[in-house]
Write a structure and sequence with these properties.
Helix content is about 70%, strand content about 0%. It has about 240 residues and is mainly α.
């Protein structure tokens, strides 16, 4: 009986010693969402300020790159091509030896887009100012393109409104119709009844906006993926918090 008591006490003491050496588990409070991203104790103000700064950097770089000479024409990714719904016109014009006219026409398309994008900055800035806390966290956790999508949703109609008169002014200044009219006139005369005359101002407006958002998305991805593109401590903290 004494041996049994001694053995039991020894076993209990050994078990207590083993338990005391086990690592302590953190105390869990509340329900954590599955796959929740880890953050370094970011405050709401830091998230919003960081996202606004990231968007400001992105749109400034994008507008600077697109609103200059060759901003569209010299960038194969966003360069405006001959209008797709008038591609037959281009083919016919090239067959007629009007390659010089076609090239000049496409150049003026892109010049008009470069002029139009100068109108984007104040519209983007207004959208950024109105960002809510919910918007900020959704953008932060939304992955690549989330900030660009937010801007697009907030600004697309305003951009169309602002770009349209700018495009009309630009097409007039670069004399777009002087290069377009000879091409379309010859085409319509040869095809006899298959008249094509696309709305060039609407086409340029649409493609200019699309190209601008392509560049905004690239700038956003840089900040998300490349620590070197985070040009401030706040950007480093906010985007460095994502795992």
């Amino acid at each position: 009986m004494k041996f049994f008591l001694f053995f039991s006490c020894a076993l209990i003491m050994y078990s207590c010693d083993v338990l005391s050496q086990m690592p302590k588990l953190p105390k869990v409070t509340g329900n954590l969402p599955i796959n929740a991203p880890v953050t370094n104790s970011l405050t709401n103000d830091e998230v919003i300020s960081g996202l606004k700064e990231a968007l400001s950097v992105g749109i400034k770089n994008s507008v600077s790159l697109t609103s200059v000479v060759d901003g569209f024409l010299g960038n194969p990714t966003i360069r405006l091509p001959f209008p797709p719904d008038a591609i037959k016109v281009k083919e016919k014009a090239l067959n007629l030896g009007l390659s010089g006219q076609v090239e000049k026409f496409e150049t003026t398309l892109n010049r008009a887009a470069e002029e139009a994008t100068k109108e984007a900055m104040p519209i983007f800035i207004d959208a950024i100012k109105n960002m809510s806390v919910q918007d900020g966290f959704a953008i932060l956790k939304g992955g690549n393109g989330a900030a660009t999508k937010f801007l697009k949703d907030q600004t697309i109609s305003k951009l169309v409104t602002a770009f349209t008169p700018k495009v009309k002014e630009a097409t007039s200044r670069v004399k777009l119709t002087e290069y377009w009219n000879p091409i379309i006139t010859k085409y319509n005369a040869l095809t006899m009844g298959e008249d094509l005359n696309p709305d060039l101002d609407a086409y340029i407006t649409q493609k200019a906006i699309e190209g601008l958002f392509i560049m905004v998305a690239k700038e956003e991805d840089k900040i998300r993926l490349d620590p070197a593109a985070r040009v401030s401590d706040l950007l480093s903290k906010v985007f460095g918090s994502l795992k």
